[in-house]
Recover the amino acids of this structure.
């Protein structure tokens, strides 16, 4: 039987970064709680889960099957370099309709950002006044920890969880300072440049035993030192980069082509978006982080080394272009050159006119609720079952991350079944035939 602790009391969801994604997420939960909308896109709220045989007809909603925190028990907080409250931030982001925002204006205006840890060396296209100062990065981490203690006390929270909703930082590769916790902490005291602000937030959260998810392609919790700390404090972690628009389509389409044994010669992807994320990614150093995150998807799904006749010569290119008129409405365009029987060529064209923050907001909610569930279930370290939500999922050392969204979904659902003492579903056995 399940050993999951109940979700009693309030859960504080803290977001470093309180711009378009965070304001859309927070406004959405408030709107749902007031009966103004439905939490569409949230698997934890709208998705169901099959239990037992198909003939048993047991398909409860996930939120009714596992003890998740109720949306009415969530408290919001976070940090940002701008001083805008969440109503002002949402108005500025222009994601949600003002008519809706005005109906929840008092609740949004009450959510104000704490001073952020920020360094323009890592995000050159942004700057703001609401920033912490400290002698070194360890001192800044301790300031974040104090923020969290104060927030928890002032809001009467029983538990906290942190989900990074800030900007994409410049590309940084793992190095010696990330290899052990001792070296990381020494590097923080010495202001090592290989420790970006997102890693300072991750360290602060995990040091306090607060579950942490990284929604950007930054180097954050996905280094050996952070995994070591997560095991030491028994804290669940997950990263990285919310799987929203174009990569979501890739992880849906590529597995389908693979299972039909259709070849792929080329996959050209381009994006245009005009929000703050697009402005940040217009800088080549920041784009590099996103590019690496996006490029790994097809290679892991298709495994060219195992299928050289089908994917050995695959050319994969990704571009992102800043286009202010689009705002938060991102356009992801894919040209896919495939080949079939006897090598005859075909093409697939995908033009996904999506809304970046609308797709990201339910991911923030699900990651927060499931990480809190993991913590109450005494699951700690890398939560590979949450790869479903991430472009560049974190995996244990020596293992390749899983990108196929259907396999990711199966792993997520089977983890929930396991936690609740239900039989895992493998689609084998007699049940498979009726």
């Amino acid at each position: 039987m399940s050993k999951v602790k109940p979700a009693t009391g309030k859960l504080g969801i803290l977001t470093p970064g309180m711009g378009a994604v965070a304001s859309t997420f927070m406004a959405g939960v408030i709107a749902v709680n007031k009966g103004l909308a439905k939490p569409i896109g949230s698997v934890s709220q709208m998705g169901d889960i099959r239990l037992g045989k198909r003939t048993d007809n047991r398909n409860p909603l996930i939120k009714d099957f596992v003890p998740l925190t109720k949306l009415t028990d969530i408290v919001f907080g976070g940090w940002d370099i701008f001083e805008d409250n969440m109503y002002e931030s949402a108005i500025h982001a222009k994601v949600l309709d003002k008519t809706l925002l005005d109906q929840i204006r008092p609740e949004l205006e009450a959510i104000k950002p704490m001073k952020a840890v920020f360094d323009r060396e890592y995000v050159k296209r942004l700057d703001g006044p609401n920033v912490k100062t400290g002698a070194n990065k360890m001192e800044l981490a301790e300031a974040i920890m104090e923020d969290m203690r104060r927030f928890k006390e002032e809001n009467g929270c029983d538990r906290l969880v942190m989900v990074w909703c800030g900007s994409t930082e410049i590309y940084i590769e793992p190095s010696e300072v990330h290899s052990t916790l001792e070296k990381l902490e020494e590097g923080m005291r010495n202001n090592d440049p290989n420790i970006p602000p997102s890693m300072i937030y991750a360290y602060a959260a995990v040091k306090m035993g607060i579950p942490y998810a990284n929604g950007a392609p930054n180097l954050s919790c996905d280094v050996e030192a952070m995994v070591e700390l997560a095991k030491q404090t028994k804290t669940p972690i997950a990263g990285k980069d919310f799987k929203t628009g174009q990569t979501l389509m890739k992880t849906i389409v590529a597995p389908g082509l693979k299972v039909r044994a259709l070849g792929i010669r080329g996959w050209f992807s381009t994006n245009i978006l005009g929000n703050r994320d697009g402005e940040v990614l217009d800088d080549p150093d920041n784009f590099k982080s996103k590019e690496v995150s996006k490029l790994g998807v097809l290679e892991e799904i298709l495994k060219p080394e195992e299928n050289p006749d089908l994917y050995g010569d695959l050319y994969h290119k990704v571009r992102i272009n800043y286009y202010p008129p689009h705002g938060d409405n991102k356009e992801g365009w894919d040209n896919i050159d495939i080949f079939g029987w006897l090598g005859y060529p075909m093409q697939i064209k995908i033009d996904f006119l999506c809304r970046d923050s609308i797709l990201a907001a339910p991911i923030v909610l699900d990651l927060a609720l499931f990480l809190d569930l993991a913590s109450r279930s005494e699951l700690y370290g890398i939560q590979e079952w949450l790869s479903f939500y991430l472009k560049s999922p974190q995996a244990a050392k020596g293992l390749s991350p899983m990108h196929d969204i259907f396999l990711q979904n199966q792993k997520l659902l089977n983890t929930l079944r396991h936690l609740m003492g239900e039989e895992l579903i493998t689609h084998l056995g007699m049940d498979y035939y009726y």
Q: What stands out?
A: Residues 66 and 416 are 7 Å apart (CA to CA). The chain has two domains: 10-242+357-419, 248-353. The longest helix spans residues 356-376. The chain has a mean pLDDT of 93.
